[in-house]
């Protein structure tokens, strides 16, 4: 496991920090790899749980917290960044913000029925191929297509 230090956001404002941390939530069911996507609250498009850095959290810890709040996911991450994708975030008060999302794998150990944003989003398990087809961001689609924790385990 990679040791990450918690972030310190002293003096930072959301408008200054344009990096988000995303959780690529996955499970292996009947030897098939599945990923969990959720809908965004505004446009209802398919996305991964993601959010702003959190003071005192590691990047992977922030991604896991977002996975809980937005999708009801409990799980574990090894803390390695799988990749980065870019997108434009519509921030009501600031307009469109160019953002980079750092992606962290989260192996799902439990999926709660009651969580902070239940009722605000849909969630769905799908294959990597299907997930890559339904997301809007080409870089995210590539990360989803290429992701396979079973290969990482075999090469370790």
UniProtKB/TrEMBL annotation:
SUPFAM superfamilies: Nudix. It comes from the Bacteria. The keyword Hydrolase applies. Residues 18-148 form the Nudix hydrolase domain. Transmembrane segments: none annotated. Its cofactor is Mg(2+). Gene3D superfamilies: Nucleoside Triphosphate Pyrophosphohydrolase. CDD domains: NUDIX_DIPP2_like_Nudt4. Pfam families: NUDIX (PF00293). The keyword Transport does not apply. Keywords: Hydrolase, Magnesium, Metal-binding. This is Nudix hydrolase domain-containing protein. It comes from Roseobacter fucihabitans.
